[in-house]
């Protein structure tokens, strides 16, 4: 069996399931779906707003009633790095030289991608994060990147 075809079929299936969750249950259903694919506790959508990062929607694996998180100063977030790098994966911030001592946040593990507006300009991030160490999740990037474009359009329709 061709592993490339199997891999692309699996991705197409995941993307369709994501779209179905968004259609059936809205933004929080879509975030819940994405969260089931990762070990991270939280999955959220954030908007860049000058020196602040605004939470637009949040899914918490342990508290499904929580639908929005707190805003934060950009300088205290990994999302600020995504704005420059397009995507970022941190398994353990206490050991990662890119962020250790540079960004002060309780978030230890992070996996996020850039959300772009209709003109392709940075709008915010779609990310998974946790206050505990999580296994590497680079495999989340293809679905997160595809979902980011869909979610931006959904938020602005």
UniProtKB/TrEMBL annotation:
Report the superkingdom from the record.
Bacteria
Q: What is this protein called?
A: GAF domain-containing protein
């Amino acid at each position: 069996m061709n592993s490339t075809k199997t891999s692309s079929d699996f991705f197409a299936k995941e993307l369709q399931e994501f779209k179905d969750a968004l259609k059936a249950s809205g933004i929080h259903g879509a975030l819940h779906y994405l969260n089931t694919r990762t070990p991270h506790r939280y999955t959220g959508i954030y908007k860049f707003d000058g020196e602040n990062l605004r939470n637009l929607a949040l899914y918490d694996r342990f508290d499904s009633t929580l639908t929005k998180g707190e805003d934060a100063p950009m300088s205290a977030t990994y999302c600020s790095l995504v704005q420059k790098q397009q995507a970022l994966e941190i398994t353990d911030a206490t050991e990662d030289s890119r962020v250790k001592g540079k960004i002060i946040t309780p978030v230890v593990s992070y996996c996020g991608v850039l959300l772009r507006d209709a003109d392709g300009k940075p709008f915010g991030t779609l990310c998974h994060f946790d206050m505990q160490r999580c296994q590497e999740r680079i495999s989340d990037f293809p679905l997160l990147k595809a979902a980011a474009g869909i979610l931006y359009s959904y938020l602005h329709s």
